[in-house]
Amino acid sequence: MTSLALAQILLNGLALGAAYALIALGFVIVINAVGAVNFAQGELVMAGGFLSIALAPFVGDAAGIPGLLLLPLVMALMGLFGIGFAHLAYFPLKNRPPVAVFVSTIAIGLVLQHLANAIFGAAPRAGPPLIAGDGPALGGLTLSLQQLAVLASAAILVSATGLFLGKTQTGRRMRAVAQDPEMAAAIGIRPARMIALSFALALALAGAAGLLLSNQFFVSPNDGGLFMLKAYIAVTIGGWGRLDGAVLGALLIGLFETLVAAFTSYLAAEALLYAMLLAMLAFRPGGLLPERTRSRV
């Protein structure tokens, strides 16, 4: 394998890992906000992909950047859906046993899966590209504009999420509620509003990931379970509850899958990824960036 081919594979891996990072970020944001896993995260990524397909005819190939034009609209619509999702899956059950919340998220995920199947059919569909056309040539390597755009878009969204949560008043309030909702309420913060915003942000990121992945990897109604597993593995490798750990874990997964698949096969890469997960659970259960002790369900 030449160095140029290896560079192309690494670029592919980084672009895939960057999209996974958006899924994992949303996954961790909900865990931190309510202390429970949102098992519908994968189906929400799938929903974002199909939403971009449904909206694509309205922009056509406008200016050669249909996906970039749709990205903020898909995120806004998924964010609004996130507020409804919180009021449907979490708030009515927040005082019930924790198992009730994640069962409700599983139920909503299945509803989304069957709804997508009924509307779009079971066959994989391709979403709009972020940027149409070929990219610049570097030596003997022709860079893909789509992959460069996926990588840049994901990097901007990850950075913006970090700045929002770390530097804005609303982000600090969301983190305060995640750490101690009773204390946050005592100082005047409204926990329910911050939790609803957390779901909105998580679903907006899931929608963005769905759009970014849907062009190169297609999307089908049954893809939710696979996306969910990738998010789960990313936070397990990176460290539960850690936003930076989720991003690190997702990038490692993308690079690992792409590199191993290039030398063996996609099925072998998947099998080795799960073997790596088992090894991580056995020898470093806290992940590469362990979180301070906190119970998760």
TrEMBL record:
Bilayer topology reads: Multi-pass membrane protein
GO MF annotations, alphabetized: transmembrane transporter activity
Q: What is its main location?
A: membrane
Among the Pfam families in the record, one is: BPD_transp_2
Single GO cellular component annotation? plasma membrane
Concerning CDD domains, the annotation shows: TM_PBP1_LivH_like
In the record, the note on similarity to other proteins reads: Belongs to the binding-protein-dependent transport system permease family. LivHM subfamily.
Name of the protein: Branched-chain amino acid ABC transporter permease
Species this protein is from: Nisaea acidiphila
